[in-house]
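Notes taken during the Thursday session

The instructor put the following on the board and asked us to keep it in front of us for the whole hour. The protein is Lipoprotein. We were told not to look anything up and to reason only from what is written here. First, the residues (70 in total):
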Amino acid sequence: MIIRFIVAVLVAIAATGCTQVKVWERGNLARNEMAFTPDPLEQKIQDHIYHSKEASQSVAAGAGGGCGCN
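Then, after some discussion, the predicted structure tokens were revealed:
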């Protein structure tokens, strides 16, 4: 019984975080400052350098073995 109450409270708290964005507010969300990565090219370069140094391959990367030569 108490677990159901706790789950109901958690769902209610999670639901209050969702809101509908008005049409006139969508322009603010489309700004570069609101992006996870403001400069996608710079982020891609940094990812390439990181994965080259770590000798790993990211999910978004294509072919390459970590030598930094691709």
